[in-house]
TrEMBL record:
Record keywords, A-Z: ATP-binding, Ligase, Nucleotide-binding
GO cellular component, one term: ciliary basal body
A Pfam family recorded for this sequence: TTL
UniProt region (Disordered), positions on chain: 1-29
Listed name of the protein: Tubulin--tyrosine ligase-like protein 9
GO terms for biological process, alphabetical: microtubule cytoskeleton organization; reproductive behavior
Record organism: Caenorhabditis nigoni
Family indicated by similarity: Belongs to the tubulin--tyrosine ligase family.
Length: 339
């Protein structure tokens, strides 16, 4: 997979290594100086990978070069921390401008409008997110748009900060949109939702819908696309006859696992290289190359849409997860960006 800038690809973060030159046995402290020093605020797979990585050593002090921080640390400590030259952390202060669905849509629309004013044909050159509205703020705009579409058009509703398929539902009639207005058990208003026109003609493999998770490492003015990634398939074969069957329309593993006949051994994932080999076998190299170029453009344009909003601190990087859906013409559509 080529990179989003100058076609460079990287599978790791490069941090300068401190080295010493000794001809006599080294003390533990001297041995530690030869390694990349890291801290990790989590106790999950990320911590395990860092701990077991050759040439890396964990530290509890402030002499770290790499710190996998939490969102809480970003909120409470980022503005107070005095970074040394070689220190690097895994988040930007306001990365939500890209990773919250409502902010993603707001910034996409703003960038699209600017492109249109400059004479760009946005219908062909800047069109990678389906028609979208944030409710309740844009409810009346959505109703106007809704009435322009055929009556059998399918729409999809998503919580702006949801994950793992929770709270997502499809509908064809306006009365079903009232779901987002319902109050939770505490009596407070439900979180805002994003409503989008549903991509009704997804590319199918074996009759099943899928989306793709692509990892993009971003540092100010540079972005690298990881060679690895994966495609997630729906549990059941695709059909638009029913909009209520999550096993047909959603590709989240968390949703598939709830199916009575879910088989963890069979799995519902392909690696990204396997998927593109399949594309090549079905459509040829030329078509797949165009799709990859279109995909790179989606990544670049989405990052450019927030470049003046996200604080460009050189001590920060972000590992974004781009969720992409291909339609039957191999056009990539951006569903969301996660961290």
């Amino acid at each position: 997979m080529s990179s989003a800038k100058e076609r460079r690809t990287s599978n790791q973060i490069t941090i300068p290594t401190i080295t010493t030159s000794q001809s006599t046995p080294q003390t533990p402290r001297e041995q530690k100086k030869k390694k990349i020093l890291f801290k990790c605020a989590l106790t999950n797979t990320i911590s395990d990978v860092l701990t077991n990585r050759e040439g890396w050593a964990q530290t509890q002090g402030d002499d770290w070069q790499f710190f996998w921080v939490t969102r809480e640390w970003m909120t409470t400590c980022y503005d107070k921390h005095k970074f040394t030259e070689k220190q690097l952390i895994c988040h930007f202060r306001n990365d939500f401008e890209l990773t919250r669905k409502d902010f993603l849509i707001k910034n996409y629309k703003k960038a699209r409008k600017a492109k249109e004013k400059s004479g760009v044909d946005v219908a062909t050159e800047f069109n990678f997110i389906p028609s979208s509205y944030v409710l309740p703020a844009e409810y009346h705009l959505f109703v106007e748009e809704f009435r322009k579409y055929p009556t059998d058009t399918i729409w999809i509703m998503k919580p702006v900060a949801g994950a793992q398929g929770k709270g997502i539902f499809l509908f064809r009639k306006l009365k079903h949109v009232q779901e987002w207005k319902k109050k939770d058990s505490s009596g407070s208003e439900a979180l805002p939702y994003v409503v989008q026109s549903y991509i009704h003609n997804p590319y199918l493999v074996g009759g099943k819908k899928f989306d793709v998770r692509i990892y993009v490492l971003f540092r100010p003015m540079n972005a690298w696309v990881h060679r690895e990634g994966f495609a997630r398939f729906s549990h059941s074969r695709y059909s638009t006859e029913s909009v209520d069957d999550a096993f047909v329309h959603l590709t989240n593993v968390a949703v598939a696992k709830t199916a009575a006949d879910y088989d963890p051994e069979r799995g519902l994932k392909w690696s990204l290289p396997k998927l593109f080999r399949f594309f090549k076998s079905m459509h040829g190299q030329s078509k797949v190359s165009k799709t990859m170029n279109d995909l790179a453009k989606v990544i670049i344009e989405s990052l450019k849409s927030v470049q003046n909003l996200i604080i460009q601190d050189t001590h920060c990087f972000e590992l974004y997860g781009y969720d992409i859906l291909f339609d039957e013409n191999l056009k990539p559509w951006l569903l969301e960006v996660v961290i």
